[in-house]
Amino acid sequence: MSQSYSRSTLLRLGAIGLSVLGTLITMPLLLRTLGEYPFGIWGMVTATTTYLLLMDFGIALACTRYLSLQSGSPEHWDEIISNSLLLSFVISALLLTCSLAVWLCYPGNTAATDTTPLPAIIAIVLVEVAVSIPLRMYQSILRTEMRYVDIGLFEIIRVGLRSAGIALLLLLGAGLLTIVIASSVINVLFFLLGLLSVWTRHRQLFFRSRTLSRQKSLELLQFSKFTAISQGAEFLRFRTDSVLVSLLMGINAAAHYTIIVMVVMLHNQVLMRFMSYWDTLIIRQVGAGDEAAAIGAVQRSLTIGMAISLLCLTGTIMVGKPFLGLWMGAEYTKLHLPLILLTLVLPSIVVQMATTPYFNAIGQQKLNSQLDSAEILLKLVLIYPFSRLAGLEGFILAILLPAFLFAIGSRLYFFRKNTTGYPASLSKQQKQSLTLTLLISVLCLFVYFQLDSHKLTPEYLPLLLSGIMALLLSLHIYRTYLR
Known about the structure:
The protein is mostly helical.
């Protein structure tokens, strides 16, 4: 039933490669075609709509959690999936109503054209989310069965179609509205592929009206409400901060922030592909009563994630400036320092991604949502004074301080507190793994800065050093965890 971690990760990294290629092509094309000011507006719209596509109000995660706890008893799946689908249908109906209201309130004298697309975009995105939420329950089945190879293949199809489609539409002169419609169709196709995979293997959709029960629906809602709070807090993380940047520092600053966020998001996608495998495994092990194995999986996820984030940070220091110059133009190399600062958020994402499934599995989803909310509230308090004092760099520092305090410090504290009787600290092998990764990074940085201080740094050296680091780290992770 389950599929190889290394094979599925390679496939999902292939999807990242396609996504990177698409971003490298479309971002400069958008900037040069639209100009910096419209590009800033596009960045805000994209950040907001992209996040909305992830919103399922916790129902899909609740479904995954309960399916994983019953992974050895498929006879109970009908009840879980049926009630999850019922809740998703209710939310879909509300979203479709909102979409209709937006469309009806759209001024009749301004047709839905690419010159005034925002209300139409909102309506389209709401319809897309409404259609995709029920389909996500079948993604939950794939995750419960740990069929990450299938998910990786579907991601490659989605990313390939989306990247090629957007680039082609831009070259043909299409506007923002057309691009949003095409992206929405492709995103829905991704979830439909999950449904088709389940149907092909099981010859059923696991929906039985006789299994609908008020008690099970309330149980799912009780779990999902805290996830919904976390998703609400996630809305105000760095991914959608271009809106806040535009309010505090102007649209042009939002354009600059959009550029560096895109780079950090590429790093984040790599982290997600390596770490998402462990989510379901942790929940299944807790459900099977093997808490020691679940804690070991959390520690392994932390170790791999920290090693990758360290690689991303070191690579950004060495390659970030020439990359920005080649990608967006020489005038944007000034964003190198803000890019390095924002890359420092990756360790906090690692700790959050590693500990969240464990907290959810042991019934501490309320604690998880409180930590997320506290981090965001502190950030909202800090961003105004920090951005006034230090501009874009100050804004990023206002993101980092709460992340270090709550996403790293508090989460690790409560993780240790909730693992009494089990070894919560990293094993000797994991400590050696992180130490070796740190030494590789320090050595590469030392060589780079020594040559750079003597003006002996050839243009290809940062890329070469980053490539060597990536190769050594990949071999190390494979030998330590995947072989």
